[in-house]
Amino acid sequence: MGTVIKRDGRKQTFKASKIKRAVQKAVKEEGIAAAQSKKIIKKVVGIIVKRFKGRKSVRSSEIRKSILSLLDRTAKAVSAAWRKHERKRKRRK
Description:
Number of domains: 1
Radius of gyration: 13 Å
Order of helices and strands: EEHHEHH
Largest sheet: 3 strands, mixed
Number of helices: 4
Strand order of the largest sheet: 2-1-3
Strand content: 5-15%
Helix content: over 70%
């Protein structure tokens, strides 16, 4: 995958590290044990990278939906923490 198209139309190079950091924050927020959190992070990043591999560009909203869908199936508490963070962030704007 090459480019991520942001909501405002800007384009950025895809970086798996950004997905990793976002999932790490949600896992940390939930207080999940280190061994389990590593498994969750590795699984999510691996699946997302594989899912969008070979595409020239993808919308950030599509990546977000895929991550949350995956977390809903595998780690509901983490997806809840992610959504809680998003709500807080929206209120600050």
